[in-house]
Amino acid sequence: MTALDVDWSLLQAKDVTRKERLSSDDPVSELDGPVLAKGCDQVCTECEAKLVTGATPTHSLANNLWIGELPWQLKGHTWAEKMMIAKVRHNRCVVRVASGRGKLVANAIMFATPIRKVYNVLPLSCDELSEVLAFVFLGSAKPTGEDFVRTPMFVRRQRVKDALDWLKLNHRDYHTLETSDANLIDLPEEGIPCGVEWKKTEEGESNLVPEAMSVD
Ligand SMILES: [Zn+2]
């Protein structure tokens, strides 16, 4: 890539990147140099053609497409944990988890809401969560902690807190977000966030969700 004779300032951009902040004492600053993905040392012919004519390629990170590397604080969240940290919500959801013959099958139905909701306080409170999410567990026995770990509804309080702390420091849309300690404390250390409706089905009952009964 260094062999390419192009004007590298074409890949420099203001207000596009941001240096990771580890504490609120760190200044808000941008990365130095051209905006490139980590380890990137190749260019496709399409971008090269743009660069040699002196234009910033449309699909270059410098063209407002940079999001940076995903930090560990934002990796590996369950579906429910993601709901807890999302600032914008434009759907409601019903999740049904059916348990049968040692197998769990989850179905989720999403409904679009006409007006999107923007949260200024996170994580969601129990009431707010129940406005956008209903969770039903079908099974012959009351769900156990072990069952919950296997569902997308599993929430770990610390993982939610780590993500929100990182976003507040590093994501401009979360800068003014208020983290509610009360809502955080309401979350289980490890478990299911709010009331779960449990519907008993008889052992061997045939009206279970068919996928839960199959033996593949
Ligand atoms: Zn390209």
Give a quick rundown of the structure.
The protein has seven helices and eight strands, in the order ααβββαβαβαβαββα. With 216 residues, it is of the alpha/beta class. A hairpin with a 2-residue loop joins β1 (88-100) and β2.
What descriptors fit this protein?
about 220 residues, alpha/beta, 4-stranded mixed sheet, 8 strands, about 20% strand, elongated, binds zinc ion
Descriptive overview:
InterPro entries: DUF6570 (IPR046700). It comes from Mycena albidolilacea. This is DUF6570 domain-containing protein. Residues 54-184 form the DUF6570 domain. The chain has 216 residues and is of the alpha/beta class. The protein folds into 2 domains: 1-69, no CATH class; 72-213, no CATH class. Helix content is 24%, strand content 22%. The chain is built from 7 helices and 8 strands; from the N terminus they run H-H-E-E-E-H-E-H-E-H-E-H-E-E-H. The protein has a 4-stranded mixed sheet with strand order 2-1-4-8. Helix 2 (79-85) crosses helix 5 (157-170). The longest helix has 14 residues, at 157-170. The protein is elongated, with a radius of gyration of 23 Å. It starts with 44 loop residues before the first helix and ends with a helix. The model has no long low-confidence stretch (mean pLDDT 86). Bound molecules: zinc ion.
